[in-house]
Amino acid sequence: MENMQAGYLPDLLRGNTDILLLSLIDEMGSTYGYQMIKEIEKRSRGFLQCKEGTIYPALRKLENDGLTKGEWRELPNGQRRRYYQVTTSGQTMLAKKLAIWQDFTTAVNLVFKPVNT
Amino acid sequence: MENMQAGYLPDLLRGNTDILLLSLIDEMGSTYGYQMIKEIEKRSRGFLQCKEGTIYPALRKLENDGLTKGEWRELPNGQRRRYYQVTTSGQTMLAKKLAIWQDFTTAVNLVFKPVNT
DNA sequence: TTTAAGTACCTCGCCTTCCTATGCTGAAAT
DNA sequence: ATTTCAGCATAGGAAGGCGAGGTACTTAAA
For residue range B11-60, what is the model confidence (pLDDT) as tens digits? Predict the structure, then answer.
């Protein structure tokens, strides 16, 4: 992953955004939108750049679906952030989707390089 | 990938269909739509099920973009198939997209399990 | 001090891409 | 005779990502 050029992933993220977010929230215990954008970019070494127009609606949806629980927190300086936590059903879904992700990449790689015959 | 359940890949294929097709055509030397559907399903052990409504337009697009070259062939019994081959620019694109696919999966896995700090 | 840049959230409308459904032709099987 | 398979095609709708725009406050730079 030497010369990773960000920005040229036509639609690869599609359908995976929610898992990425769920996984992040779950692992970080509690986090908020803006931080997730930065964290995803950082962890992926600049490759994955989630856009605000993507993740805020996605976070909304996760919460509406009951997979996360959001909560406004006020900072000392008056700024506010919406912190999220993964719910129980969110964790179930996360495990499920992580398994699907595994299967999916395995399947694609099998198409690229079929094993035996 | 034991209990792979086909049919539940919301949008995972999205953005990857063209690479899958390009890769298949390239490797098989020459092939046609219907066969590709079957081959993808076979190689992925039933996990990836490309729909006709997906691949025929996709094949059309690949050809329009000059990445493949199509040709009608008539069978002895009068049936016709459209066989495709990868063009030179198609191979360039294929190599490029395979690299992107690698980077992408690596990046996603890094988000799931970040390395050191 | 004005300006720029960063933090933090939101939303609308477009675009792309996929899937469903449907249709067609002819061959093979039952 | 009817179903199933092979083989291609398209139109309509849904979903998700993204660009562009907006709000509001803070911090750094000029």
Answer: 677 888 999 999 999 999 999 999 999 999 999 999 999 999 999 999 99
Number of folded domains in chain A?
A: 1
The span from the first CA to the last CA of chain A, in angstroms, equals 30
Residue A117 covered by a domain = no
- Domain containing A96: what range? 10-103
Distances in Å between the Cα of A71 and the Cα atoms of A31, A74, A76 are: 10, 10, 16
CATH number for the domain harbouring residue A18: 1.10.10.10
Specify whether the CB–CB gap between B38 and B50 falls below 8 A.
no
Closest residue to C22 (CA, C1′): B53
Asked if the structure places residue A4 within a domain, the reply is no
Q: pTM here?
A: 0.88
CA-nearest residue to A48 within chain B is B107
